[in-house]
Specification:
Blueprint lengths: L1 H25 L6 H18 L15
């Protein structure tokens, strides 16, 4: 149950951050960056707490290349 709740929460925060990043980049609204950053950081923190593998992927994982 912990993994499911964390996955849903992490995905919601991730997509909210993505949604906020669009006007931030398009209109150059730098004042939105702290909100965007907090949403993304909370998203990865929740994912790490539950030991899920989505929506984020750790860079130290092996690739197939």
């Amino acid at each position: 149950m912990k993994k499911i709740i964390a996955r849903i929460s992490s995905e919601i925060l991730y997509y909210l951050g993505d949604w906020i990043s669009r006007p931030m980049h398009y209109f150059d609204w730098a004042w939105l960056y702290p909100i965007y950053n907090n949403l993304m950081m909370y998203s990865i923190d929740i994912q790490d707490w539950a030991k899920n593998d989505k929506p984020w992927r750790h860079t130290d994982e092996q690739t197939t290349i």
